[in-house]
Amino acid sequence: MKKDYVPNGSDVAAGTYQCADCGHEYSNQSKKSLPPCPKRLESMHLLNGWKILSGQGDAQEDPYPQQSDK
Fold first, then answer.
1. DSSP letters spanning 23-41
2. Is the dihedral of CA 5, 2, 57, 51 positive or negative?
3. What is the C-alpha to C-alpha distance for residues 26 and 52, in angstroms, rounded to an integer?
4. How many other CB atoms are found less than 10 A from the CB of residue 59?
5. Which residues pair with 51 in a beta bridge?
6. pLDDT higher for 33 or 2?
7. What is the pLDDT of residues 23-61, one digit of tens each?
8. Tell me, what's the pLDDT at 51?
9. Residues 19-54, buried b or exposed e (16+ Cβ, 10 A)?
10. Maximum distance among all alpha carbons in the chain?
11. Distance from C-alpha of 62 to C-alpha of 58, rounded to nearest angstrom
């Protein structure tokens, strides 16, 4: 099953992503940490992640960003 959403901070492959909250599109090369949407300060962002439009999305060896044990 192919994922269609990745949270901020995910290790991702090159591709095009769309903010799950506001629709802002972001294209990148492979990243160790997918940044938050640059428009997050302009409007409410509750999902804090990206829809995968093209590319492989989340890297298999790092499917989720590091999460605290809290």
1. --EEEES-BSSPPPPTTTT
2. negative
3. 10
4. 15
5. 5, 18
6. 33
7. 999 998 887 888 999 999 999 999 999 999 987 666 555
8. 95
9. bbbeebebeeeebeebebbeebeeeebeeebbbbee
10. 34
11. 7
